[in-house]
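User: For documentation purposes, I need each entry recorded in a consistent format: the amino acid sequence on its own, followed directly by the corresponding structure tokens. There are two entries in this batch. Please keep commentary to a minimum and don't merge the entries.

Assistant: Recorded as requested. Entry 1:
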Amino acid sequence: MEETRSRRKRGRPPPPPVGCSSFNRTVFPLLLAAAATSSSSSASGNLQNPHARFILRRFLRARLALLTTRTPPCSSPSALERLLPEGLLALFPVLFISRWPSVAALGAEVVGAATLYSLEANEMMASDEGVVKGLVCALGSKSRRIVKAALHAVMDLSTSPVGREQLWKASAVERLLSFFYQVAKTSAISAVHHSMERGSDVCSNRRPVEGKIVALVLDVMVILINTSTEILLNMIPRYLLNRSLPLLQELWKKIRGASIPRNWGRCLHFTEYDLASTIFRLSMKQANPAICEIDKIRISIFGNEISNFENFMLKYWENSPFLLSGSSNILEKDNAVFSSLVHSLNPTSTDDVLDSILMELVSCPPLASDELDINCFMNEMNSSLGSPLIYGQDIRVLKARELTAESLKNYVKKEVHFFENGMRKVFIDGDNAQKCKEAFQNGFTVALRGMEFRSAKVAAIAKGLEVLFGQPSVGANLYLTPPGSQGLARHYDDHCVFVWQLFGQKHWTISYSPTSVLPRLYEPLSSLPCSESEKGGGLQLTLNEGGKVLLMLLFIVGMKRGKNYQIPSLVPKPEQ
């Protein structure tokens, strides 16, 4: 009989909420007294009441049942006022600091349920400054149960624009970044990664609590940061960025390319692209790479005498190639700018170098020069950030081959691409990365674009060259050519070129343009008159390690052939 009565009791719907005035007269004083007793700030023995915790838990569970079972939701002002009276909202900040974790956690759960009850209820909770700040403060609790409930409530609150705005004002992101740093610097990140590799459920009760907390923190951070504005991002203290970004980047590297198991769906909602977007947004405030001093750039190229630079600008600039002899020994002793870049590279085996390029580097999506709103760019590239290298855009694998057709008398060699550069994007990952390594062994050159976006030292040199030569921009490409092979066929460039032989040796043939008129961009060489290089003439150069040459406009380059090539690692050493 008692069992049947208990079963009927559990099956009954929760009673309707009392009116607001009745709540303020009868319920609120009782809850206030109980909350004051449960407050950690009033934990003296004289104020302890054995019934206070029971009253608070009983009321909060009943309110939670009302918010989660009543359908459809009542969004009228009077209904919301009965469901969430002002007196109840005023109690939440006190409940969040209760010395009873069950009470504080239940309070956060009620707030989370209210934010999901309806959009109006969400805005009501978000508009209460005390509730929002109380939730953010609860993130710093020593009780993992309270922290977990608060994280869920913050995530629920972030489902509305008003909620996200109020969370930013309450410094929720700063608190989350600090909490993430404290937890993630332990083994929690490894626990998350290992769970993904095995496909196990990080939310399972059998998993460590820290792994669950990290997953929740990441979810909330990704949501708030990826929906923020540049103004809000600038409010984050720099020291928090410097501490948190390396950990986020480490986590992204570990989960990159890994599919998030389905059983993670109920607690981990972001993708690797979402995390890449978060890292990108946080990185925008980091200091730009320092520009190399102009005098150091000039001295590194032309020596200490300023007359050498002036002579170059008067006689050679846009008129004739200019060869600068040098060696690695000279670079190490006298060339502070370029030697620092050489030292940042770690020479290893060919396979390791190619792995560092093909598997560790990511795509650099093009940014339109007239793009003024970074948020527009982020929305367009949302699913592309952090993707593997894209063939044609970031990297090319090509080889110059001789043609025997008599109809092509003006061409001695033609560039052959290893991958078809068609309409479909080719990502260099997995099998394609292995194919690139095999192509290199078969004589193909690996050409990597956008080194100024991938290395801080290259970016600093590029910026310095911009100022020194008065150019709007300077790009940097890297070419890895195996011994005895030729990557690019005879061609011309529509811009001035500064070539620096980092390692190994290459042979060049350079000829003057047969016409004083600049060819159109990407105009085929067959449309130009016959040049000296086709007659066996032209300037013959062999660049050894450390050698540099400046190629001006109006020159046709008859290609580079690698010789005795020792390949360095292209991943810069960690900054000290």
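Entry 2:
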Amino acid sequence: VWGPGRVERGSGFSLRPIGALGWLLSLPELPRLVCLVLTGEEEPAEGRSWACSWVGRGVGSPRERWAGKAARAGGVNPNCAPPPQGLSCHLWDGDVLCLPGSVVSAPGPVLVPARLQTELVLRCRQETDCDLCVRVAVHLAVRGPWEEREEEEEQFGAAASPELEDSRNAALQARVVLSFQAYRTTRCVLLEVQVPAALARPGPSAGSVVFDCFEAALGAEVRLWSYTQPRYQKELNVTQLLPDCKGLEVQDSIQSCWALPWLSVSAEGDLVHLVLDVPEEQRFGLALYRSQAHGAPRPWWHRNLTGPQTITLNHTDLLPCLCIQVWPLEPDSVRTSTCPFREDPRALRNLWRAARPRLLPPHSWRLDAPCSLPAEATLCWQAPGGGPCRPLAPPLPRDNVTVNKAHEFPLLRGHPNLCIQVSSWEKLQLQECLWADTLGPLRDDMLLVETRGPRHNRTLCALEHSGCTPLPSRASTRAARVGEHLLQDLESGQCLQLWDDDRGAFWACPMDKYVHRRWALVWLGCLLVAAALLLLLLLLLRKDPVKAAAGGRAALLLYSADDAGFERLVGALASALCALPLRVAVELWSRRELSAQGPLAWFHAQRRRTLQEGGVVVLLFSPGAVALCREWLQDGVTAPAARGPHDAFAASLSCVLPDFQQGRAPGRYVGACFEGLLPPDAVPALFRTVPVFSLPSQLPDFLGALQGPCARGSGRLAERAQQVSRTLQPALDSCFQNPGAPGRGARWALEPGTGLE
């Protein structure tokens, strides 16, 4: 050690280790310049490590510092000045503004920070009066277009100009900014660094500079940045959490650690006791908070207390990140923090109970949890009916999860059967089907996994409880039995694509229709049994058979619209038949459909529906209808033209006549005419192959034919015939009163025995 004068060994100074933090140097008086030379017994002088520090007269107030390594060519300067071939630096007085600025292009080779290295040291006024300090080493490197300088040297050669020679021998200089941030503290210092041209060569390191040091509080989180002015690259940064009094091995050297309240944790059943052992009158603060791996801690509980205290917590309040901080209520006091429940099994169980996956539209999710936790997540396919959720990895890999942060799904769209599994240390902790709330319950879909290999190779398999069944396959599994149909559904676009990339794809194919086919016979048997039971119940209840038969039978009325009076008569008959009840279709009530479809199309649809339902087609003959029939029968090739846009009778003859000519009419058709308007003998002989009833004399038989073979009981039919007759009477009177109407003014002559006299 050299100072104002040489200090011999043992003359008043001591150098002793301080835990793992460094060395404590005690001097009888503080010199202006202090250098330490560290060397082994056999190490040559040029390999010795040395460090120099200029300090001011004020205790512990550094002004300028320099650190380096002795040059290989020379030894250690006996005056401890920086060697002429070494790295040198100068510290600016006072702090500077922390303004990094934008990145600019380097004009040539420049000196930039390459790496930051920190070290915790003690800064002591006395042996028992020390503060914690962060020493920062900035490792520098040469960056930039070094090739341009070499090309100039090759171009000019040995005969280079003096300016080029001066540029080549010039030292590189840089202004390096060190930024220090801690709680309530922000500092930026500026170091002017210079490296000789002989050492300014591209490489991983051109030397290092040490700043000694930034004062910091115990237990604080500090952040360091380093960059140059101007800035040629992205700034370097380091974050470090400093230990508190419990984490240091030198509490006796820091006075603020002497008066800390000491904390112990004990458990009793479901309760946890925090016991603070402090003097009777000492006032201190106590805070419970949740530490976070990313971001600021979350305060939970805070109190100012006096004397010994016991704080009781329930075991459900415990979490691995629940920490306790205590400090004496004094100015600038040191806070001590401890997190005693990091490995507590109850705290880990509480954490997983509080963790919840949440779906974030459109294709992301987040794991909400009060603490950070080590977890992995993967997608799985959950089939309905229970059973394990089949992981979709491969091809989808497991991802590390950061809590309270959004994660993207590698999917094209969601599906109710897609679930997410969260595991920790290979143990499943959570499973949630995130799309069930928005897309409904689980579906009976089969997931097809497409795997793509080299040379466009493609394989398909169906994911089942027993594994992934190749398609097609002769196995006895559910997917194998319908494998061909599933492949057809995939090719026809009936399957929903959930994921697609170079490795493969996922397809969800519905299985409902195959389940319906499988159980069709069972359902048919059940329906037959139910129908038999219903029929038996109807027989037991002895319901009116005529009502049961007529209530559901269909009747299609066809007529020729001779005049308005005849149309009113047909409408009255249709209304009376509906009251039986019968399901009556008539052109008069379907004019809108008739106009939209056309008479022929409307008749075809009504005839097909009526006959399929076991109904009957009623031909109401009038003089106009008979004339149309004769015209058709005489021509035999083309149908007679319709008399109006709504004349369905003329259009229907093209289908009605073939039924009569080929013998298909009995059981499907019945005829009717109104007495006084047309006698039954006037109906063409071809149409008399089916019953033709004269109304109203044969109303009971007419109603029986409409209601089908189940109709019986002449008394009930006669009663219903009288109801129909009363409904028809006003329309008949109006029809007969029209000028030129046949039988005008006549009344119906009812034959004896009809019950209508």
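Summary note for entry 2:
The two ends are 149 Å apart (CA to CA).
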